[in-house]
Amino acid sequence: MSYHPRNGAVTDAEGKRPARLLDQVRHKLRAKRYSLRTERAYVGWVRRFILANDKRHPRELGGPEVEAFLTTLAVRDKVAGSTQNQALAAILFLYREVLQQALPWMEDVIRAKRPAKVPVVLSQDEVRRLLAAMEGRTWLLASLLYGTGMRLMEGVRLRIKDVDFARNEITVREGKGAKDRRTVLPASLVPHLRAEIERSRTWHAQDVADGFGEAWLPHALARKYPNAARELGWQYVFPAKRRSVDPRDGCERRHHVDEAVLSRSLKAACRLTGIVKPVSAHTLRHSFATHLIESGYDIRTVQELLGHKDVTTTQIYVHVLNRGGSGVLSPLDRAR
C-alpha cells in the first residue's frame, strides 16, 4: 500500500486500485504518528458511522448525517461525553485528513452530559491492603504506578534507559500531550526494578540470539538511529512473555506487557481485601496525588510530577481532601 501526496489517494501494494477506506484511515493515522490504541478506536468509529448510514460512502454523507450519528450516541446509546467526543474526533479526522472535505459547523448535535465526578481515592491503609494481596509483576507495576503517579500506559511503556537509579528518578516519555516529565523513583522498589530489568536483559539476549531483539521505536528514530532498536536501553522494563507480530509493520518483536493483566489483578485484589470502591490503575494515580497533598507537599510540585498542563486540574485533589469526613464536623456530632 502506498500514499500519493498530490491527490491524497492510497493504493494497494501493486499500485493498481485504491485501497479500502478503512485502510486509508489507518495509513493516515500512522503517517501522523497516532498510537495504535487511537488507531483502533478511530477505525472502529468510522466503521460504526458507515454502518449506521446503510454502508454508504462518507463522501455521499455530510453534516446532517454526522449530527444524527452523534445525537444517537447521546440519546439512544447514552454514551459518556468523552466517548461522544472521541467519535466526533474520529469522524472529523476522516473528513479532514483522509477525504479532505470540510464539514459544516454542527450546532444541532445533542451533546452527552459530562457529570462532574470526584476521583476515586484509596486511603493509605487501603493501598497497603491492596498491594499486599498482589504478587509478582502485577504487584510491582501497581506499586510503581502508586509510587510515581504514572498513568497505566506510561508504566507499561517504560523503557530501561528511562529508569535512573543514581538519581532516584524516572523519566516519563511522551506522556499526555506528548510531553516528557520526571517523577520520583520509590527507593523501596529499586531492588525489585533491578530484578525486573535483569529479566528483561535475559529475554532480550535470547531474542537477539534467535535473530530478533528489536524494540519498537517511536516516530522516525528507527531511521535516524538504525542500531538503537537492538540496544538494551530501548527495551521495555515490563516486556511481554512472548514475541508477537506488530500490526503496524508486520515485524515480530517483543512488545510490552498487556495492560489488561494489571486490571484483572487489581479486581482480584479488591475481592480478596473486601475493598468495594471501583478501583482501576488510574485510582492509584489519584491516590498518589492525594496522599502527597495530605503530607503537605506543594501543589505545584504535585502538578509537575503528574504532568498536568494546568494547576486547576491538580486542584481537584485539594477538593477531595476538603470534602472528606476529616474536613467537616457533622452537625449530629456537634449536638452530642
Automatic annotation (TrEMBL):
Give coiled-coil spans as residue ranges: none
Query: Which Pfam families did the record assign?
Result: Phage_int_SAM_4, Phage_integrase
Any one Gene Ontology MF annotation carried by this entry is: DNA binding
Asked if the keyword DNA-binding belongs to this entry, the reply reads: yes
Q: Gene3D superfamilies in the record, alphabetically?
A: 1.10.150.130, Intergrase catalytic core
Record key words, sorted: DNA integration, DNA recombination, DNA-binding
User: What PROSITE patterns is this protein classified in?
Assistant: CB, TYR_RECOMBINASE
Task: Locate the transmembrane regions by residue number.
Answer: none
Signal sequence residues: none
Domain Core-binding (CB): from-to ranges:
16-99
GO biological-process terms attached to the record: DNA integration; DNA recombination
Q: Which ranges carry the Tyr recombinase domain?
A: 117-330
The similarity comment for this entry is: Belongs to the 'phage' integrase family.
Among NCBIfam families, the record links this protein to:
integrase_gron
State the protein's name: Integron integrase
Q: Which organism is it from?
A: Luteimonas aestuarii
